[in-house]
């Protein structure tokens, strides 16, 4: 069966690693993002790694007008349609404290934009009777912390959305994987202090692929983050509110 | 954040630098940061000495720009981003009949690094240096991207190959790949009893890929004994390369103490039967034997090690005996010592190769190591040879002009491109390269 992956936010290093990995498996890729010249370079790479079709296409989480052409292009292709969502932005909590209007954009990038896109493409997936959605959230979405609770709450919203979408797509044979990465060595985290146990994008991509194959519902990557977040979410709120973790 | 303060080292781990490092993932972010701060590029930092260091300055880590941009199966020309690693290219293309024309001893080296040091491989006597197979370079300097090649911007092209990043940031390149039969190697190993036999065997070798391992602890009659490896590409089926393992911590200093090395080398020599043997291996195991052991530089302990590599003209082969004598009696050698015949092939003004013999030896960073290397450098200069800047952390600047006669031309060009010395590294400052302008 031909598989096509629509990769939203394909310029990120995690998305790039994932696109390369599915290309090596012989899947088709549609790389969606804002920097078209860069996406074209990635598309060349994917084609040379083994993707029979590799295309770059405009996508902006804050501009819903860019969504329809992607869905149209996907509907022309045969086989299963899969979507992997890597979009997101993380202004620091300090920046948001100084300018709370940044919240709207953060919510759009991490939740409202991708959720709108998924809502639009879901009927097409249902019609084809299968397909997988990979939604990249964050461990930050498991609990609101003083350090970045706006970003965390947007991711939490996205997690809940994915849970509902999973409930819906299961009925037509589809599947949704919620991915909660810990610290990953990307451009977004480059130079940020206090990072530990940092994983490479290639490691995250390999974990995601494994989760897709095994039809896992929610994964933490690297896996030990499940334990860390298990502890953090177990702390009673009356104690947690005094901590700065 | 764009700039991250990092303390890092070259592969030898003797010298270190603390620099502001950026790691762009796209051409647009590279262009934006170069427009604001000019800085030399670095890759996987597999050069041994200080050519990748810029203490107190800035550096641009290119390892995230590693995509294959295009391949023409008719001509075998591959366009690739500078951060792509040679081993990854080999693994991707060997099964379909193409290999990088020249590969250094580690597959972790980036394309940009291979160009900037004009590296050579086990086929140098036939294929020449890496730069001789570079068709075009996309170079960024002064915030602008330009393409240089043998036919366009030839001067800049020749200064960039082997130019240690002094002409700007190599963004991507077109490489002429070499047809190969498949992704396995047929390797013949023979014991060689002493240096004279070794030189004869190297001269007589008809193989495409040739390299000699030397027991640098052997003295007297056995001085220069070792194992000659000759290999050809082929097709067939061999088990996949074994998964790599990592050295988990810094080894203690006695791990490479001289009696240990002597015993190890003797055993390693006898590993190959007296009448020799032929075997088949996955391609990466032949070209990148040490890559199986990730972070093997930790075997030298936390003080690190130096690698001395020189080339001397064929007529001066006698000085190799002098060098091996000094090394053997100093008791500083490690198991890693390599002898190879080089052809004349070189592509840049500051390229290392010349027709002759090249000797490479690791020395743990113990007292006496730098003094011994200084002596070896002196001998190399007197013999009309040169030391390899990709390995170097110690060369005295007074040797540079004689070893690299084109340094004046190089320095003039580089100074005109970069008058404020923004692309300088710890190595170019130590060697005072710009003073030759």
UniProtKB/TrEMBL annotation, chain A:
Lineage, opening ranks: Bacteria, Pseudomonadati, Pseudomonadota, Alphaproteobacteria, Rhodobacterales
Keywords for this protein: Oxidoreductase
Gene3D superfamilies, sorted: NAD(P)-binding Rossmann-like Domain
Family recorded in the similarity comment: Belongs to the short-chain dehydrogenases/reductases (SDR) family.
Pfam families: adh_short
GO cellular component: membrane
Single Gene Ontology MF annotation: oxidoreductase activity
Superkingdom of origin organism: Bacteria
Entry-linked PANTHER family: DEHYDROGENASE/REDUCTASE SDR FAMILY MEMBER 7B, DEHYDROGENASE_REDUCTASE SDR FAMILY MEMBER 7B
Descriptive protein name: Short-chain dehydrogenase
From TrEMBL, chain B:
Alphabetically ordered keywords of this record: FAD, Flavoprotein, Oxidoreductase
InterPro entries assigned: ALO_C (IPR007173), FAD-bd_PCMH (IPR016166), FAD-bd_PCMH-like_sf (IPR036318), FAD-bd_PCMH_sub2 (IPR016169), FAD_lactone_oxidase-like (IPR010031), Oxid_FAD_bind_N (IPR006094)
GO CC terms of this entry: membrane
Residues annotated as domain FAD-binding PCMH-type: 14-180
Pfam family, one: ALO
Domain of life: Bacteria
GO molecular function list: D-arabinono-1,4-lactone oxidase activity; FAD binding
The protein's name in its UniProt record: Decaprenylphospho-beta-D-ribofuranose 2-oxidase
Provenance organism: Litoreibacter ascidiaceicola
């Amino acid at each position: 069966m031909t598989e096509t992956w629509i990769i939203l936010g394909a310029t990120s290093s995690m998305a790039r690693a994932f696109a390369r990995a599915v290309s090596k498996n012989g899947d088709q890729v549609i790389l969606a993002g804002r920097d078209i010249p860069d996406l074209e370079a990635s598309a060349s790479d994917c084609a040379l790694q083994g993707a029979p079709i590799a295309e770059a296409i405009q996508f902006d989480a804050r501009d819903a007008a860019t969504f329809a052409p992607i869905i149209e292009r996907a509907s022309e292709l045969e086989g299963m349609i899969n979507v992997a969502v890597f979009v997101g932005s993380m202004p620091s909590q300090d920046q948001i404290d100084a300018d709370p209007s940044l919240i709207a954009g953060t919510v759009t990038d991490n939740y409202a934009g991708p959720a709108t896109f998924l809502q639009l493409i879901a009927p097409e997936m249902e019609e084809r009777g299968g397909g997988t959605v990979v939604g990249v959230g964050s461990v930050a979405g498991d609990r609101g912390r003083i350090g970045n609770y706006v970003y965390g709450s947007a991711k939490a919203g996205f997690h809940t959305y994915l849970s509902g979408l999973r409930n819906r797509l299961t009925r037509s044979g589809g599947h949704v994987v919620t991915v909660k990465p810990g610290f990953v060595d990307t451009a977004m985290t480059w130079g940020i202090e206090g990072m530990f146990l940092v994983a490479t994008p290639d490691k995250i991509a390999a974990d995601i692929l494994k989760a897709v194959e095994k039809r896992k519902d929610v994964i933490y990557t690297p896996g030990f983050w499940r334990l860390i977040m298990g502890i953090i979410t177990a702390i009673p709120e009356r104690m947690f509110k005094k901590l700065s973790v | 954040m764009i700039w991250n303060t990092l303390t890092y080292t070259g592969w030898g781990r003797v010298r270190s630098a603390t620099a502001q490092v950026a790691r762009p993932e796209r051409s647009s972010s590279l262009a934006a940061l170069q427009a604001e701060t000019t800085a030399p590029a670095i890759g996987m930092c597999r050069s041994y000495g200080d050519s990748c260091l810029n203490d107190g300055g800035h550096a641009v880590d290119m390892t995230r720009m590693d995509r294959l941009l295009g391949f023409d199966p008719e001509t075998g020309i591959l366009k690739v981003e500078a951060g792509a690693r040679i081993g990854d290219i080999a693994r991707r293309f060997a099964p379909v009949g193409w290999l990088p024309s020249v590969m250094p001893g580690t597959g972790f080296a980036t394309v940009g690094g291979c160009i900037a040091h004009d590296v050579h491989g086990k086929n140098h006597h036939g294929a020449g240096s890496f730069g001789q197979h570079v068709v075009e370079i996309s170079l960024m300097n002064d915030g602008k991207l330009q393409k240089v090649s043998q036919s366009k911007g030839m001067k800049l092209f020749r200064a960039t190959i082997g130019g240690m990043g002094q002409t700007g940031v190599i963004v991507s390149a077109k490489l002429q790949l070499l047809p190969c039969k498949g992704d396995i190697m047929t390797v013949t190993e023979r014991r060689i009893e002493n240096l004279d036999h070794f030189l004869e065997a190297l001269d007589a070798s008809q193989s495409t890929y040739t390299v000699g391992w030397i027991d640098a602890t052997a003295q007297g009659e056995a001085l220069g004994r070792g194992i000659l490896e000759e290999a050809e590409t082929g097709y067939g089926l061999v088990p996949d390369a074994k998964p790599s393992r990592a050295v988990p911590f810094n080894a203690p200093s006695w791990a490479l103490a001289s009696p240990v090395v002597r015993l190890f080398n003797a055993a390693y020599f006898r590993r190959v039967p007296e009448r020799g043997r032929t075997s088949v291996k996955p391609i990466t195991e032949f070209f990148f034997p040490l890559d199986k052991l990730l972070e093997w530089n930790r075997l030298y302990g936390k003080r690190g090690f130096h690698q001395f590599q020189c080339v001397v003209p064929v007529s001066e082969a006698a000085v190799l005996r002098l060098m091996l004598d000094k090394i053997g009696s100093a008791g500083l050698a490690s198991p890693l010592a390599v002898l190879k015949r080089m052809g004349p092939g070189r592509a840049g003004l500051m390229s290392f190769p010349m027709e002759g013999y090249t000797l490479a030896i690791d020395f743990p960073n113990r007292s006496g190591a730098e003094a011994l290397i200084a002596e070896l450098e002196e001998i190399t200069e007197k013999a009309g040879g040169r030391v390899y800047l990709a390995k170097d952390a110690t060369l005295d600047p007074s040797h540079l002009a004689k070893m690299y006669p084109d340094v004046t031309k190089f320095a003039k060009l580089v100074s005109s491109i970069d008058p404020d010395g923004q692309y300088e590294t710890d190595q170019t400052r130590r060697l005072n390269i710009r003073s030759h302008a």
